[in-house]
Structures are given as C-alpha cells and as structure tokens.
Amino acid sequence: MTNRLFIIGAVIVAALYVLFSSIYVVNEREQAIVLRFGQITNVRSEPGLYFKIPTDIVDSVQIIEDRLMRYDISDMTVQVSGGAFYEVDAFLTYKIVDPRLFRQRALGQLSVVEDRIATRFDAALRQVYGLREFNAALSEQRSQMMTEARDLIRPDMAELGIEVVDVRILRTDLAREVSERTFERMRAERLAEAALLRARGQEQAQSLRAIADRQAVEIVAAATRDAEIIRGTGDAERNRLYAAAYGQDPEFFEFYRSMESYRTALGNSGTTMILSPDSAFFRYFGSDGEIPAASTTFAAPIAPQAAPITSTEPTEPALDGLGIEETVAPTMTLEDGSELQPTVGTEAPAPAEETAPAPAQ
User: Fold this and answer.
1) Which 8-state DSSP code applies to residue 289?
2) Which residues neighbour 98 within 8 Å (Cβ) at sequence distance 6 or greater?
3) Distance CA 301, CA 252 (A)
4) What is residue 230's predicted lDDT score, i.e. its pLDDT?
5) With b meaning 16 or more CB within 10 Å and e meaning fewer, what string describes 69-80?
6) What is the DSSP string of 311-327?
7) Alpha-carbon gap, residue 174 to 86, rounded angstroms
8) φ, ψ for residue 27 (rounded to 5)?
9) Are 334 and 340 spatial neighbours (Cβ–Cβ below 8 Å)?
10) 142-158 and 110-130 helices cross at what angle (nearest 10)?
11) TM segments (predicted)?
12) In a 10 Å sphere around its CB, with 0-12 CB exposed, 13-18 middle and 19+ buried, how is residue 125 labelled?
C-alpha cells in the first residue's frame, strides 16, 4: 500500500512538472523568444498564455523587455568649434523592435546593448557639438542638435534590433575654466561700456559748463556795460545840474569851493601847512566870514521839473485790523522841538530875497 501511494504521488508530481514546464505567460510589457536547442523557433510579442515542449531541455523561453528604456549620460565634457568646452547631461530612449537580431547580435543581453549605446551616444554628441560655434549650443539650435544626434545613433543600433526613439539634452553648461574666462570677458565689456558712458557724460557736462560760463560772462559784461552807461548818464546829468547851478554865480561857487577846501585841509588830520597869507588859498580866509556880493545876473537854475506826487483818496475806508478807519500821517520831532510834517509833491521852495552886501571893515 505504501509503495502504491508513493508511485501515485510521483506520477502526480511528474504530471505537474510537465504541465507547468510546458506553459509560459507573456504580459503586455514583455516579449518572448522560444528557443529549441539554442535556435530561435518563434517570437511571441502579443500578451497571453502559450505552450511549448515540456522541460527546458528541448524548448526554452527568453523573456525580453517590450517597453521604452532609457540610457543617461551625465557630466560629459564636449568641445565646440573654437576650442571652448561644455559640460552636458543627456539621455536617449530606445526599444527592442527586433527580438531575433537582439538575440543574435547582442545575445539578448541589455548590458551589451548599453555598452554599444554609451560608445555611439558619446561619439554622436561630440560630433554634433563640434560642428557648432560657442553660442550655437545655447541657442534655438538645440532641438536640431538632438535630432542630428538621434539620426547618427540609429543606424548602428538598428543592427542590434534596437530602435532609438528620442535623444534629449538636459543641460549644457560651460566648463569651470571657460565660465571664469567668459565672466571676466563679460565684466571687461561692461566696464568698458561704463567707462564710455561716463566719458560721454563728462564731455556733455564740460560742454554745458562751458556754455554756462560763457553766458555768465556775457550777462555780467552786458550788466556792467549797462551800469556804466547808466552811471555815466547820471554823472553827466549831475554835472549838468551842478554847472547850471554854479554857473549862475561864479563868485559864490568860488567861495563855496574855498569853504570846502578849508574844511578838508584844516580838519583834525594832524597835517601842518605853511602857506603865505597872500596866497589864493586864503582869499576868503580874512573876510570875517562874509559871503561875497551876490551876482546881479542871478537867475533860477534850469533843471527838469519832476511831476508832483499827488495822493488819491481811497474810495473805501482802510482798516488796520482793529476797527480804526482813520489813518494818521507820521510826524517827526526835531531837536529844537519843531515837528516835521510830510510834504506832498516836489515843488521847489521860493528863492531867498536878495540882501545888500555888508560894508567891508
């Protein structure tokens, strides 16, 4: 009985082994290569449940990826036309489209494929960057560069049954030494531009300052000229009035000039003068202070009469803020007790009456 149960159990185990070894499942993310004695007999790319000869001695199945896969490259140093260097980060996406070639050329190993991708991707990026100038890699040509790199890689990868779907450049930065040189060059350009603007500003400031100085000189010269003209006109008018006044009585004019000379020369200046009593300077000194006889041809001086100043009565009473409407004219008390009242107009006072000269003693 025991042997019979053992045999039945062995048969069941063998049947289960045969059943499970003849079944394989392919899901939607995979492909299956069926091998018979190492030779490809079939490729399953559709998901489902499939059967093969039991055990792996005759038929074997290799599962491969049917998804998009990604390969990254980072901190890659490339040289552009002109000798500058960039540091580049990029990646590409690929897919196994021909499982037979993938098995035959790459032994069905992704590591072999990625080694080939690394070599070809590096060479393609260097070639694409090497054909361009320094600024082109940072311009709108980036999309064209990615397309060119993808087209360069595709033929070699197609031989392995791999399709390169896309190439993307993530980062393009200047190398450190190039970045420092670029910064220094940009700094020098900005400093030169600032110096140019400052020089232009100083030039304009000097020009404006020169114009202002010239205008100031012209204004001062014109003002000085007008002042001299006005002063000369005033002096001429003064001399004319003096001449008209003194010309009426030359003898009185000589007497007045002598009195002024006495006041100036004999003042408290501490100066000692030794002159003859008969000199012309003492002509009126011994006259006992008498004024010479008046000229018989005396006439009033001819001078322009100023228009009298007239006051107009206000139509409305003026208020000083305290309710007082009358306005009192100001007065001044002199030393002798008399009051000086304000005068109206500029009328000349009546001439003094002529007096007979006193007899000489």
Assistant:
1) T
2) 161
3) 14
4) 94
5) bebebeebebeb
6) PPPPSS----SSS----
7) 5
8) -90, 180
9) yes
10) 140
11) 6-26
12) buried
The vertex-49 CA angle with 45 and 53, nearest 5°, equals 95
Which conformational region is residue 317 in: left (phi greater than 0), alpha (psi within -120 to 50 degrees), or beta? beta
CATH of domain 69-174: 3.30.479.30
Long-range CB contacts (< 8 A, 24+ apart) of 39-43? 40/100, 40/103, 40/104, 43/99, 43/100
The answer to whether residues 241 and 303 touch, using CB atoms and an 8 Å cutoff, is yes
From residue 53, give the alpha-carbon distance in Å to each of 19, 21, 30, 95.
10, 8, 21, 29
Q: Which amino acid is at 272?
A: T
Q: In 10 A of CB 10, how many CB atoms? A: 10
The per-residue pLDDT for 344 is 42
Q: Taking the mean position of all CA atoms in its chain, how far away is CA 31?
A: 65
Question: What stretches of 60-175 show up as alpha helix (H) in DSSP?
Answer: 99-106, 110-130, 142-158
Q: How far apart are the first and last CA of the chain?
A: 200
Token digits of residue 359: 């007899």
- Residue identified by tokens 């000589």 is 254
Alpha carbon dihedral 208, 212, 217, 221, in 10-degree steps, equals 130
What is the model's pTM?
A: 0.46
For the chain (length 361 residues), average pLDDT per consecutive 10? Answer: 74 70 77 78 77 73 84 88 83 89 83 90 90 77 88 90 90 75 85 93 92 93 93 90 78 77 72 70 60 49 42 43 42 53 44 44 36
Token pair 């031989």 is found at 159
Per the CB < 8 A criterion, the answer to whether 189 and 120 are in contact is no
- Cα(354)–Cα(352) distance, integer angstroms: 6
* Distances in whole angstroms, Cα of residue 115 to Cα of each of 71, 73, 119, 120, 342: 10, 12, 6, 9, 122
Distance CA 101, CA 135 (A): 41
Count of other CB atoms within 10 angstroms of residue 164: 24
Return the number of other C-beta atoms located less than 10 Å from residue 147's C-beta: 13
Listed residue (109, 46, 339) closest to 117, CA to CA? 109
**Residue 205, amino acid:** A
